[in-house]
Amino acid sequence: MEPEPGKEAALHKERELIEKVLEHEQQVAGDARLRQSLYERIRQLNRPQKILLALRADREARMILLKSYDPQVYHFLVQNPRLTAEEVVELTKSDLLLPHTLELITRNREWMKNERVKLHLVVHPKASTAVALNTLALLSDRSVRQVARNPYVRSALRKAALNMLQRRA
Q1: Cα distance between residue 36 and residue 16, in whole Å
Q2: Which 8-state DSSP code applies to residue 81?
Q3: DSSP alpha helices (H): ranges in 29-154?
Q4: Cβ contacts of residue 93 below 8 Å, gap of 6+?
Q5: Which residues of 112-149 are buried (b: 16+ CB within 10 A; e: fewer)?
Q6: Cβ(119)–Cβ(90) under 8 Å?
Q7: Cα distance between residue 169 and residue 143, in whole Å
Q8: Closest Cα partner for 24 from 73, 57, 72, 71?
């Protein structure tokens, strides 16, 4: 069964628009005026287009997409193979992340080497208790102390952090 001609044309137009954004991103490099133009182009994309872009975007576009405040865009941004640990740190600061997005982050070994990523995952309000406790075990003593002292962390995590500190001492 072939797609309808109207849908095919719409899909082609979407792909073309995303290709233009990606092409423009290559030209942006260091020019502030062009970067503003890239921001405007990305801002005008609808959600499905932003999701497609999130999977393939370069650094400039990813930084703009980080400011989109859309949990679905964040989920697909995490699946971008070029996403760096520092970008993930910025991403984990958002309360809009969904629990399954946080689990995707924990599966990436490269990101989990970063202490700040692990700390943000533990204290994130939407992280499941299992994810938070498993990640807590990977933290350094200094970070575990931070979790134990943080009044905004769930009490179960604070207690687990205190127990961990006592065992390590």
Answers
A1: 21
A2: T
A3: 32-43, 47-56, 59-66, 71-78, 85-92, 99-106, 109-112, 115-123, 129-136, 141-149
A4: 120
A5: bebeebbbbbbbbebbeeebbbebbebbeeebbebbbe
A6: no
A7: 15
A8: 57
Q: Looking at this protein, which amino acid is placed at residue 32?
A: A
**pLDDT tens for residues 70-103?**
999 999 999 999 999 999 999 999 999 999 999 9
pTM over 0.90? The answer is: no
The whole-angstrom separation of Cα 76 and Cα 108 is 14
- Which residue's entry shows tokens 């994309």? 45
pLDDT tier for residue 47 given thresholds of 50, 70 and 90:
very high
- The CA-atom distances, in angstroms, between 141 and each of 41, 114, 137, 167 are 45, 15, 10, 11
At position 153, the amino acid (one-letter code) is: V
Q: Which of 99, 83, 154, 143 is nearest to 119 (CA)?
A: 143
Quick: pLDDT tens for 125-166.
Answer: 999 999 999 999 999 999 999 999 999 999 999 999 999 999
As given in the structure block, the two tokens for residue 114 are 């970063």
